[in-house]
Amino acid sequence: MLKHHTFKISGIFLGIIIVVLLMWSSVVFGLTKVSTQDVINSLFHFDGSNQHIIIQDTRIPRALIAAAAGASLAIAGAVMQGLTHNPLASPSIFGINAGASFFVVLGVTFFGVTSLEGFTWLAFTGAAIAAIIVYVIGSMGRDGLTPIKITLAGAAMAALFSSLTQGMLTLNERSLDQVLFWLAGSIQGRDLDLLIGLLPYLLVGWLLSLLIGKHMNVLAMGEDVAKGLGQRTILIKIFGALTVVLLAGGTVAIAGPIGFIGIVIPHIARWFVGIDYRWVIPYSGLLGAMLLLMADIGARYVIAPQEAPVGVLTALIGVPFFIYIARRGINE
To answer: Which InterPro entries does its entry note (predicted)?
Structure first.
């Protein structure tokens, strides 16, 4: 664990360097051979060749989207775990991703939505509705909101939205062809315009997460203690929920429901920097970007010459970690 303030700052800069190197690797590695010199030439001396087109239209957007999506999912998971005091909290486990996906497929199936703007607002709406339903169900009963109740509520809503999504897809083969690969979680073939259109929402989500970090430290001591110290806990929870909706909804709109990053990464970040959310959140963002970039590079080779959805790779990494966290939570 990095205990000294200087080490934590150094870790941030090291993380940025690693993310940049992984983005460069994402541009260079793939079934089409691309050299470092090809990348430099495509940026400064574009000649319209096949390699230069692949670099600018496919590889560079893919690297940027992977970094942004990985960071967003990890930060959303860290915020959810901090607000709910639940080590299993994440957009995928709590049904946020499933709700966003359901609304996107609903729009494609019944309303013919194909635009980025349409996908974006459908994803945000679905994420928000899923979050509200899970919170309300998890708060029912005499004990109010508890980690186990909100986990069960999230799992139930994730299953419900996933079933409804699959039901719609069986009724419309055209929609199935359009969204099946996307539903598995993929950044293959995504256009840079998708990221540019969603970047303002993601930036707001990132900024909000950093602003509420120190307030989440107070909230972690217990709601009664936080209120006694003068914290407006309702306001912090609202901003936290808005952060999750913006980051999870935006990521689903651009890359589909990629799972497990929101569970795995916050725990790794806390192992590095402790429980201070002023550090957990930025470390989660950097580590999440690293994980999704590495998973995306690996997805190009595991079943070559075909390509696996990156969501499959993150699931293979995340499921054992999820089991470990669940068992540790039960034993404690």
So the answer is: ABC_BtuC-like, ABC_transptr_permease_BtuC
Helix, strand or coil, per DSSP, at residue 46: coil
Q: Are 176 and 108 in contact (CB under 8 A)?
A: no
Interior angle at CA 27, CA 22 and CA 33, nearest 5:
125
This prediction's pTM: 0.91
Distance CA 53, CA 221 (A): 53
List, in order, residues 6 or more apart from 329 with CB less than 8 Å away. 87, 88
Domains: count for the chain: 1
Mean pLDDT split into 10-residue runs, the chain, 332 residues = 79 96 93 85 85 90 95 96 87 91 88 80 92 88 75 90 87 66 77 89 96 90 80 88 93 89 93 93 97 93 84 85 70 43
Output the CA torsion sign for 65, 68, 72, 75.
positive
Q: List, in sequence order, the alpha helices (H) in 85-95.
A: none
Please give the structure tokens belonging to residue 80. 């959810």
Distance between CA atoms of 38 and 49, rounded to whole angstroms?
10
Q: What residues make up the domain containing 143? A: 5-328
Query: For the chain, what is the radius of gyration of the CA atoms?
Result: 20
